């Protein structure tokens, strides 16, 4: 399950960065919201799956509450999921 979470974490992080740094500027500077529409739904689904897997991994890896909160908060910070992968998921 940890390997699956690492993949989900990576995909969620990439989708967030694409949405934040590519799609949103195109929407506001070029007036084209098609990229936000195209990336929004997959990012939302990946975010929800990330949260569910993080809660499931809390019990499997016996994370303390502090670690769990760091992992969950990292999902809303740009590059946060990559930090979680390096700090909490690498064996």
Write a compact overview of the structure shown:
This protein has about 90 residues and is an all-alpha fold. It contains 4 helices and no strands. It has helices at about 1-30, 35-60, 65-75, 80-90.
What would your notes on this structure say?
- The chain is mainly α.
- It contains four helices and no strands.
- The chain has helices spanning 2-30, 34-60, 65-74, 80-89.
- Helix 1 (2-30) packs antiparallel against helix 4 (80-89) and helix 3 (65-74) runs antiparallel to helix 4.
Provide tags for this entry.
mainly alpha
What layout of secondary structure does this protein have?
Blueprint: H1 2-30, H2 34-60, H3 65-74, H4 80-89
Helix pairs in contact: 1-2, 1-4, 2-3, 3-4
Helical/strand content category = mainly alpha
End-to-end C-alpha gap: 13 Å
> How many H/I helical runs?
4
Mass-distribution shape: elongated
The value of Rg in angstroms is 14 Å
Number of strands: 0
Classify the helix fraction into a percent range. over 70%
Portion of residues in beta strands equals under 5%
Average pLDDT, rounded to a whole number, is: 93
Poorly predicted regions are none
**Largest beta-sheet details:** none
- Helix and strand element order: HHHH
């Amino acid at each position: 399950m940890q390997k699956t979470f690492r993949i989900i974490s990576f995909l969620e992080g990439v989708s967030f960065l694409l949405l934040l740094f590519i799609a949103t500027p195109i929407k506001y500077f070029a007036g084209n919201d098609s990229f936000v529409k195209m990336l929004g739904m997959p990012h939302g689904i990946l975010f929800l799956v990330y949260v569910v897997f993080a809660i499931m991994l809390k019990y499997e890896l016996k994370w303390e509450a502090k670690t769990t909160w760091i992992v969950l908060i990292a999902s809303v910070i740009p590059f946060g999921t990559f930090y979680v992968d390096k700090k909490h998921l690498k064996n």
